[in-house]
Amino acid sequence: MPSVSLFFLAAAIALITAHPPAQDQHSAPPSPNQSSQSQPAPQPPAPQDHTEANRRIHDSIGDLLSSDPVLSGSDVDATVDDHNITLTGSVTSYPQHQRVLQLVAQYGRWRNIVDKIALK
């Protein structure tokens, strides 16, 4: 029986020395001199560039506008950037203008829609 006790005591000592206690994460903050020297300044986030998404939206809108039979005779183009979808060109009737806005409205979740379409 003494050999079993000795075994457990040796195992406990081995565990304690092999894994020192972790440092307390909630200790007092480092002094200003220490923190500026030991940690680099945080980097600002990289500017977002949605070029690929802009291209996909532009292509989708172009497909919608060119394949809609209500829009025959109209000349509408969409320019897409990171914030806006700008519609330019002309339509021949008010229903065509409304149809363009209806088709593009689904993209209003991601971009502002700027209407610069002329009625001719």
Overview of the molecule:
The protein is α+β, with helices and mostly antiparallel strands and 120 residues long. It has a domain at 51-119: 2-Layer Sandwich (Histidine-containing Protein, Chain: A), CATH 3.30.1340. It is 43% helix and 18% strand. The chain is built from four helices and three strands; from the N terminus they run H-H-H-E-E-H-E. Strands 1-2-3 form a three-stranded mixed beta sheet. Strand 2, helix 4 (94-104) and strand 3 (112-119) form a beta-alpha-beta unit. The longest helix is centred in the first third of the chain and has 17 residues, at 2-18. The N and C termini lie far apart (103 Å). The model has no long low-confidence stretch (mean pLDDT 80).
Blueprint of the fold:
Blueprint: H1 2-18, H2 32-38, H3 51-67, E1 75-80, E2 84-91, H4 94-104, E3 112-119
Parallel strand pairs: 2-3
Antiparallel strand pairs: 1-2
